[in-house]
Write a structure and sequence with these properties.
Elements (H helix, E strand, L loop, with lengths): L4 H6 L2 E3 L3 E2 L2 H18 L7 H18 L4 H19 L30 H8 L9 H7 L9 E5 L9 E5 L4 E4 L2 E3 L3 H11 E2 L4 H9 L1 E3 L1 E8 L11 E5 L33 E8 L3 E9 L3 H4 L4 H16 L11 E4 L12 E3 L4 H12 L6 E3 L12 H23 L1
Parallel strand pairs: 1-10, 3-7, 6-15
Antiparallel strand pairs: 1-2, 3-4, 4-5, 8-14, 9-12, 9-13, 10-11, 11-12
Helix pairs in contact: 2-3, 3-4, 8-11
């Protein structure tokens, strides 16, 4: 997802009404949040709603014990709301607001987050070093078991788990036979197509596991600027605190209310953006930054025109950095993911509203094979690293090792 959680916490908090908040205030606030983390601990029976309620109560008590001025208290609550919104974007069973990156067995797995790109994962799978050259066209020609452009329409399971094969049908009319099949489609696709995708239908316990989880909606935003003098000096990320955030609680307000603008011409949907951080520089002194926008509005925002998005982001960043006398230019390029509207993903990552303990059991059930023929892998199936690329990677490795072990045992 970007830098580790602690990078976000240690980055400057920038209010839309006060500008860059005082570093002393930031440090004190982080200390309070750290106490909230410790008090909540690792209770597996807490669900996401309870987590928010309990953490809010603890934070309130801590503020009473460590009083702030009324103005600082308002900023503290706005910042705490930001942290809860951030937490809502990531399911982290280990502890409240705790990322999973520090537990990764092989740090090379997150090498895709660097300039090396997604190739790193392919090299790991093929047993190559990160320095080895990788020609994808040559690889697909020399490895006939990699088939591209094949959209699967049906997986037909055998009547007997001992003798018959699994049949996979594709929309180009091709037919593929295998001893075992690993299904790695995103949870969103599985939820929409599981009734028609498999023959015979999946067993009730597998369907229940699929339905127990949801797909979370968020998009990544990439902005390219032709200069970098507007960015806060020596900072990796900037946290956007929306103290003037207006919440529409009247359900009769139409969906397009996300496009309503405040007195500065900033549309409401931008108030869901949590942060921006640097991901690289551009030749000629430019800057490339990435933003993160969660929430239901992403499906609508992702369809908006480029010029509208450029101006919206300029106004948003300009309002937050105005008091620091940093003049934000209009980005020259805007690229936004659109996973919720993509029929190959139908959402961003898996999530659950149930307790962490129950969610772990649901993920185990989701991964469990059917008839020892049909196996499942993906971020949604990893009980510890769900919602991450490395979770998807490790889930695939675990499933492959399971199959290898079974096949070795059956041949011995």
């Amino acid at each position: 997802m970007g830098p580790d959680d602690d990078v976000y916490i240690s980055s400057p908090f920038i209010s839309d009404t006060k500008g860059i908040l005082d570093s002393t205030f930031n440090s004190r606030l982080v200390q309070l949040v750290t106490k909230v983390r410790k008090e909540i601990g690792t209770n597996p029976d807490i669900d996401r709603l309870q987590l928010k309620q309990i953490s809010k109560k603890i934070f309130k008590n801590l503020l009473e014990e460590n009083p702030l001025s009324s103005e600082a208290s308002a900023s503290a609550w706005s910042t705490f709301d930001w942290m809860q919104k951030f937490q809502d974007c990531f399911e982290t069973p280990e502890s409240w607001y705790k990322g999973s990156y520090e537990y990764i067995p092989d740090r090379r797995v997150i090498g895709w987050k660097s300039s090396a790109g997604p190739e790193v994962l392919i090299k790991l799978i093929l047993g190559l070093t990160t320095e080895d050259k990788l020609n994808l066209d040559s690889m697909t020609r020399n490895l006939p078991w990699i088939l591209l452009g094949k959209r699967v329409t049906k997986v037909i399971l055998p009547d007997s788990e001992l003798t018959e094969k699994v049949e996979v049908l594709c929309d180009d009319g091709s037919r593929h036979i295998a001893d075992k099949v690993i299904c790695t489609v995103p949870l969103g696709v599985l939820k929409k197509h599981q009734e028609t995708f498999f023959k015979p239908p999946l067993p009730p316990e597998k369907i229940a596991a699929i339905q127990s989880l949801e797909m979370m909606n968020f998009n990544l935003i990439y902005l390219e600027f032709d200069r970098d003098d507007w960015w806060p000096k020596d900072e990796i990320a900037v946290i956007l605190i929306h103290e003037k955030y207006e919440i529409f609680e009247n359900e009769s307000i139409p969906v397009d209310s996300v496009f309503h603008e405040d007195e500065y011409g900033i549309p409401k949907w931008t108030k869901d953006i949590l942060f921006f951080y640097q991901v690289g520089t551009v030749v000629g002194g430019g800057l490339l930054v990435q933003g993160f926008i969660p929430g239901e509005s992403v499906a609508l925002v992702a369809k908006m025109g480029t010029e509208y998005l450029k101006e919206s982001f300029r106004k948003l960043l300009g309002k937050h950095l105005d008091k620091a006398k940093l003049r934000v230019p209009t980005p020259v390029t805007v690229v936004m993911s659109n996973w919720i509207n993509d029929d190959t993903t139908l959402g961003s990552v898996s999530a659950s509203t149930e307790s962490f303990g129950k969610t772990t059991e649901n993920r185990k059930a989701l991964k469990r094979p059917v008839c020892n023929k049909l196996y499942f892998a993906g971020e949604a199936m990893h009980e510890k690293f769900s919602g991450t690329v490395h979770g998807a990677y490790y889930s695939g490795v675990d499933t492959a090792l399971d199959i290898i072990g079974i096949m070795k045992h059956s041949n011995s």
